[in-house]
TrEMBL record:
Keywords: Hydrolase, Protease, Serine protease
Protein name: Trypsin-like peptidase domain-containing protein
PANTHER family found in the cross-reference section: PEPTIDASE S12, PROTEASE DO-LIKE 8, CHLOROPLASTIC
GO molecular function terms attached to this record: serine-type endopeptidase activity
Pfam family, one: Trypsin_2
InterPro entries: Chloro_Bact_Ser_Proteases, Peptidase_S1_PA, Peptidase_S1C
Highest rank taxon of the organism: Bacteria
One GO term (biological process): proteolysis
Keyword Hydrolase appears in the UniProt entry: yes
Length: 238
C-alpha cells in the first residue's frame, strides 16, 4: 500500500470514529429533551391486553389497560410537549415518563388530526428538569444529510437509530389522512417511535417521526418541523 493510500485509509477511520463520537454527544444532549408516552383506557370485560413486553416501569391501575405507546419532544420548560396525534387520540389517561424516570400525567392542549400533530401539557415542576430541544429547519435540510432518530420502539426507551435524509417534500397517505411536507429517511421508525425527534448533526430537530412504511424496510417518514412550527405558533411562538 502506498503512503498516500495509507494516509487516506487512516483519515477515513478517523472520520468514521469522529462521527461515532459525535453521535454519542448528540444523544447525551438530546435525550434530556425526549419523553416517553403511554396511553391507558378502561379495561373492557374479557378484552385482551395489548402486548408491550418492554414497557416495564409503572404498572397501570387494575381497571386500566395500555392501549398505546409513543414518544414526545420537549418544547419548553413549562411543560409543553410535541407528539403525534394518533399516539394520544382519545385515551382515558396519558402518562408521560421523563428522562430521569419521573412519571406524570399529560393533558392534550391542542391537536390537528389531519396532520397528526398534538401538543401535551405536563406538570411545570416536573418539566423544570428537562432540556427543551432546539428546533431547526426542515426546508434547509438536504437530501443525503445524516440524521438521528430517538424513540421508544416497542417500549424500548432511549433507542437511537441513524440514517440519512432519503427524500423531502413527500405527500404520504396514512390510514384516513394524507400528510404533507414529509421527510423520507432510512432511520428505523417502529411502533412507539411516533412523535420522537429526527435530529440533524447540529442537534436540531428537523422533523417529528411519524411512521415506517409497512413491510418496507428502510422507508421511514417524519413530518417536517417547519410545517409543525407554523401550526403550533399560537401555543409555541418559538
Amino acid at each position: 500500500m502506498t503512503a498516500s493510500r495509507r494516509q487516506s485509509s487512516r483519515g477515513g477511520r478517523r472520520a468514521a470514529l469522529y462521527r461515532g463520537n459525535d453521535f454519542v454527544r448528540l444523544f447525551r444532549r438530546a435525550r434530556r429533551g425526549v419523553v416517553f408516552i403511554r396511553t391507558l383506557k378502561e379495561n373492557e370485560p374479557d378484552e385482551p391486553e395489548p402486548f408491550f413486553p418492554f414497557f416495564l416501569p409503572g404498572e397501570p391501575e387494575p381497571k386500566e389497560v395500555i392501549v398505546g405507546i409513543g414518544t414526545g419532544i420537549v418544547l419548553s420548560k413549562d411543560g409543553l410537549v410535541l407528539t403525534s396525534e394518533h399516539v394520544v387520540n382519545r385515551p382515558r389517561k396519558i402518562l408521560v415518563k421523563l428522562n430521569k424516570g419521573t412519571v406524570c400525567e399529560g393533558k392534550v392542549l391542542w391537536a390537528d388530526p389531519e396532520q397528526d400533530i398534538a401538543l401535551l401539557r405536563i406538570d411545570k415542576r416536573a418539566a423544570a428538569s428537562l432540556s427543551p430541544l432546539p428546533l431547526g429547519s426542515s426546508r434547509k435540510s438536504k437530501v443525503g444529510e445524516i440524521v438521528l432518530s430517538i424513540g421508544n420502539p416497542l417500549g424500548l426507551e432511549n433507542s437511537i437509530t441513524s440514517g440519512i435524509i432519503s427524500g423531502k417534500h413527500r405527500s404520504v397517505a396514512m390510514q384516513d389522512r394524507r400528510l404533507s411536507d414529509i421527510i423520507q429517511t432510512d432511520c428505523a421508525i417502529n411502533p412507539g417511535s411516533s412523535g420522537g425527534p429526527l435530529i440533524n448533526a447540529r442537534g436540531q430537530v428537523i422533523g417529528m417521526n411519524a411512521f415506517m412504511a409497512k413491510n418496507k424496510n428502510g422507508l421511514g417518514f417524519a413530518l417536517g418541523i417547519d410545517g409543525i412550527k407554523e401550526r403550533i405558533r399560537r401555543y409555541f411562538p418559538g
